[in-house]
Design brief:
The chain is an alpha+beta fold and about 140 residues long. It has 5 helices and 7 strands; from the N terminus they run βαααβββαβαββ. The strands form 2 sheets. A 4-stranded antiparallel β-sheet has the order 1-2-3-4, sandwiched between helices.
């Protein structure tokens, strides 16, 4: 298992991971409707944020992208067959540490409000809390010292 910074050559693999998710699943068309495209990911990692991938046997098994300007965990996903192997936890920690280095005292993210999905318990386990819910979107945040 190797963790490294994302570069623009990783974008197709990132989308492959995101499109493979079994919960909170979106098609590429639906992601684009939400403002997530190859171009927006490239802009995010080159101008506003930073991302990391986890590779196993030279294949991307998961990734995270954080926005250094806003303190947002913008996107995180793990291939379903690699869930429960601590990949998501390690990726989240890497992104949180980077956001701390950028001076953020509070991080935030949006997710599906369905509390039966893995994401909700995953974030709670890592110290995140519900912030608010608007228009069917759950906003979570984490305060750091």
């Amino acid at each position: 298992m190797e963790f490294r910074e994302i570069n623009s050559n990783d974008i197709p693999a990132i989308f492959s991971v995101r499109l493979s998710t079994d919960e909170n699943h979106f098609s590429y068309k639906q992601l684009v409707e939400h403002g997530i495209s190859y171009e927006s990911v490239k802009e995010k990692i080159e101008k506003k944020g930073k991302g990391w991938v986890c590779e196993i046997n030279k294949t991307v098994a998961g990734f995270v992208i954080a926005d250094g300007a806003s303190g947002e965990i913008w996107m995180i996903a793990v291939v379903p067959s690699y869930i429960n192997k601590k990949i998501g936890s390690q990726l989240l920690t890497i992104a949180e540490n980077w956001l701390k280095e950028k001076g953020h005292k509070r991080f935030w993210l949006i997710t599906d409000p369905d509390k039966t999905l893995r994401a909700y318990s995953f974030y709670l386990k890592h110290g995140w809390a519900k912030w608010k819910e608007e228009n069917g979107i759950l906003f979570m945040h984490k305060e750091v010292l």
